[in-house]
Amino acid sequence: KQEVTQIPAALSVPEGENLVLNCSFTDSAIYNLQWFRQDPGKGLTSLLLIQSSQREQTSGRLNASLDKSSGRSTLYIAASQPGDSATYLCAVNEDSNYQLIWGAGTKLIIKP
Amino acid sequence: NAGVTQTPKFRVLKTGQSMTLLCAQDMNHEYMYWYRQDPGMGLRLIHYSVGEGTTAKGEVPDGYNVSRLKKQNFLLGLESAAPSQTSVYFCASSPLGLPKETQYFGPGTRLLVL
Description:
The structure holds 2 protein chains of 2 kinds. Chain A is an all-beta fold. Chain A contains no helices and 11 strands. In chain A, strands 2, 4, 5, 9, 10 and 11 form a 6-stranded mixed β-sheet that branches. Chain A has a 5-stranded antiparallel β-sheet with strand order 1-3-8-7-6, with no helix packed on it. The termini of chain A are far apart. Chain B has no helices and 11 strands. Chains A and B meet through strand 5, strand 9 and strand 10 of A and strand 5 and strand 10 of B.
């Protein structure tokens, strides 16, 4: 059974630092992997989607990488800002069914 | 364009009571999903729908029922609420089935069952 793990559960860094969030999954036979952002009282917003054939995706200051063979993905945030404070979740899709397997998330706090 | 909306935002129930959570989307999406999110855990899929009039079970369907009578609405029902159903419930929709397209999420409904 696929399991998705995100460590650490919480992270606090000073503004301006570059940082990396980690996501690991137990079964490398995934179809794609997504990173989402969750703000309190709001829904989840998709940040980046990486297909299994891709190694990375970039959007602005965000860069997500995927290493299927090792079962790992990272989300790199450059020049962090207080507005980046949120919970970041990763989710994998194993095939063409309709179920995403989610990690529990990393709560990120950027200190001004 | 409101996207995905959920009603109500917060609700307190007593054990054994029933209620319906409403999800509405104005993006003409075919697929809709109900998730629950519990502390320290990832989201878990309760039920989903691949089109008007269709529903299917997800990972944790027990204790819940759903209906998709109209394409834009997806209802989640709790017939007899239990404290274990205390959670935050998220609805989502997507124009195509996974994995090509992402899902658009509503703001969530916080449910407390006493």
